[in-house]
């Protein structure tokens, strides 16, 4: 997994979100499980497709008493536009590949993620999703993590969003 693995203590961060004020992981720990979703950027059609799936299944995550924190490489203007247009109800945080992505061991996409790009691009095109502005590193790996109430990582997956495995571990 790189820098963090299951059973590791989650790296802390404190960042100003685009839509929910300051998010301090240390203050969130202990209240509920935290689901960290690392996307690439909002212009990425695969990321848009994954966001659509996340939004559709958001109630399932909430029902399990968990909170989502979404990380993107997108800049403020585009992020705020997506937050408003998609009515995103969870905090969206800015990061670049030299910050949170690196802290969580998310560097370049692995072979498993790259092998899914063509199929996911077709699915995005079929859903009418076009590529937007390039705001991030194209080879940046997305990922997902679950942090338990004690601040320990209990789910770590590098690659495209996998809601079924995430929900199973909640």
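^ Assign residues to that structure.
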């Amino acid at each position: 997994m790189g820098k963090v693995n299951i059973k590791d203590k989650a790296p802390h961060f404190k960042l100003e979100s685009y839509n929910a004020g300051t998010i301090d992981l240390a203050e969130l720990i202990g209240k509920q499980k935290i689901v960290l979703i690392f996307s690439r950027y909002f212009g990425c059609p695969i990321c848009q497709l994954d966001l659509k799936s996340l939004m559709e299944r958001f109630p399932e995550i909430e029902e399990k008493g968990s909170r989502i924190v979404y990380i993107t490489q997108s800049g403020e203007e585009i992020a705020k536009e997506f937050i408003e247009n998609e009515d995103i109800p969870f905090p969206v945080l800015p990061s670049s590949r030299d910050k949170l992505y690196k802290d969580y061991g998310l560097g370049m996409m692995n072979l498993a993620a790259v092998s899914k790009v063509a199929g996911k691009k077709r699915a995005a095109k079929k859903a009418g999703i076009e590529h937007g502005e390039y705001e991030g590193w194209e080879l940046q790996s997305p990922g997902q993590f679950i942090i338990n109430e004690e601040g320990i990582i209990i789910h770590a997956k590098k690659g495209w969003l996998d809601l079924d495995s995430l929900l199973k571990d909640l």
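The chain has a mean pLDDT of 94.
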